[in-house]
Amino acid sequence: MKQEINGDVEGGIAGRDIVRQEHSVDVRIKVGGDWISVKTVNVSPHKPVPEGNPNRRECPQCAEVTWLATEECIACGYNLFAHDAKARRKRIDRRKMKFIVGLGAVAVVGGLIGSFVPDGLRLWVYGFSLLSAVMAMELTKD
Prior knowledge:
- The chain is α+β, with helices and mostly antiparallel strands.
- The protein folds into 3 domains: about 1-45, no CATH class; about 45-80, no CATH class; about 80-140.
- About 40% of the residues lie in helices and about 20% in strands.
- It has 2 helices and 4 strands.
- The chain has helices at about 80-115, 120-140; strands at about 25-30, 35-45, 55-60, 65.
- The strands form 2 sheets. Strands 1-2 form a two-stranded antiparallel sheet.
- Helix 1 packs antiparallel against helix 2.
- The model is unreliable at about 5-20 (pLDDT under 50).
């Protein structure tokens, strides 16, 4: 296969089907009339992921098996890194919400039982309740 590309190339060669067959690509770089680099790059299709390999994962869009560390699914091109980042953010938000609810509960319970504790501990209970409430409010600002 021989294809000549002139000018700036951004994003690589168009067309995903070009990688599904084995071929070689000659890369030649010309600056001011002089060839500064000529290189042949062998391109082979993606290798299938072996059964039981710890580096395999299922694509959330097409349900095909793909490699764990690939940015895009080898079957449909879905951006797996963006999907993983979104899922990670959801887990962090869920964990953060549990922590905020816990701090809020400590603040409320401390405020309710503060008048029933001995005088020596009352200041500590109210202070801890106030600290928990302030921490919960600060965490909700993000």
